[in-house]
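User: Quick sanity check before I run a bigger batch. Here is a single chain. Can you write out its predicted 3D structure?
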Amino acid sequence: MTKLRAAAAIAAFLLLPAPALAQDKEPTAVGTGGAAATVDALATQAATDALRHGANAVDAAVSAAGVLGVTEPYSCGIGGGGFMLIRTADGKLTTIDSREESPATMHLDSFWEDGAPLPFNDARFSGLSAGVPGTVRGWDTALRRYGSWSLGRALQAGERVARDGFVVDQTFFDQTLPNVDIFDDIPSTAAIYLDPDGTPRDVGSTIRNPDLAQTYERIGDLGPKGFYGGAVADAMVNAAENPPTSPDANHVWRPGLMTMQDVRDYAAQERSPTHIGYRGLDVYGMGPPSSGGSTTGEALNILEGYKHLGTDRTRAFHLFLESSRFSFADRNAYLADPDFFDVPLTGLLSDGFAAERRALIDPHQAATSSVAQGDPYPYNDQAGSSQPAAANTATDERGRETTHLVVSDRNGTIVSYTFTIESTGGNGIVVPGYGFLLNNELTDFNFDSLTHPNRADGGKRPRSSISPTIVLADGRPFLAVGSPGGSMIITTVLQVLLDRLDLGSTLPQAIAAPRASQRNTTATSAEPAFITSDVRKELASKYGQVFTETPEIGAVTGLEFLGGDRVLAAAEPTRRGGGSAMVEEPD
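Assistant: Done. Predicted structure follows.
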């Protein structure tokens, strides 16, 4: 450790109490000053501790994210990427795209063998699925442009937790269990997350990750070049190109395509957010290559044409499900990396296109099958049309263990940030000696198609459904929300907004409510509590809606700004083991 680094660490230690002292999870908090909500108490406390010691919301968000990279390693971390939506103190709305990128040599059939696409798990558990991680570049870009802390200072909370360890709870155990047969193929993964007998770490035991602590320290010392160059980058490339399997591995681990040049060339992108008006409010989201802002926005535009939704919850949910169905048809056809496909974003978010799609919805009867995409190009800024490939192909995001955090500060800066390594545990490979899991984000390409806009290409970012959202009322902050959940992220955010804005729910009630997710399929996925609800029974009997049960949908965190400098922070009360909400100055 350099002398300057040592001095900074001592200063930070004096200022910030160790996150390991975090209180038990509380899903709701109200007070003044800044606020934060994450899935993890240590991460939420890292954010609020940072706020209390002069950080702004961007600094605090990166501090919390660094901790989540330790305590939620199956969901996020420096081996992955994400999307950050920022509202600055002076009212600017912007986004940081740190989505993973495919190697330059990836081509249309890289995931194909013997003339056919690989099965999903064969593609996932391989070096092929690992995109160049964007998280570190994203953190650094956000801090340099909108923060006040250095990357090194922001990572010190995560470094401490990695060294001191965190306690395994039942949720973490349950996430490990399905991956045991994969993790035990990779000694560097098994060493951290499995006991010597090959079973998951026991509930109540402590996981320490000194390798990750040293990686954080290196990044803190050197900045992004400590990750995108030198020993860490070399080890990451080697792990992807030659998966570090044990001699008795019982799966085939295909080599990947990532090179040092791919890693060195990676850059985070600052992009304009999506924006729509909804019932007098301004709703901002994430644009391409995420489909979150466009699909949520299109669905809200369709819903805005229906009045008095709050008078009949069952009717409102029928229209919510059908609006989502039609929006997903368009999302599946037109959303991809805008550097590779001219996404008709203006058309998709236009009121005219929403009216055209709304006219196809039967207000009294559910569609009985998938619906076709519409044509947004007549409503787009440019002339002409680009024809997408078949809208519905087999692959779709399966990364349900992503994580989302929200942070605000007393000066009005807000961060809504979702980041991920895709599936639970990413591609299963911990980079030896450096303590972080690699992502499997490249399986988010429609790799079963050679013509789809979201097909696999070199140097391309796969489509995402990540949907960080900020809502303003009369130009002032009102809500900030987001969720993990693969393609169900979009429907989760949409349902929370419907509940809060139209149906009279408080934000905590909207987050806790049983969920349903319609993504242009015959049957709507729904949680058990929704399946047994009166609303579901009425939707089936009155509107012909068909449902299939899924255990859990999403894991929301959100903020609501109450006026008079008061803020409500909210997280899940039970999903994902419950979340953690804190405010800088509690009531």
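Residues 1-22 have pLDDT under 50 and may be disordered.

User: Great, the batch can go ahead then.
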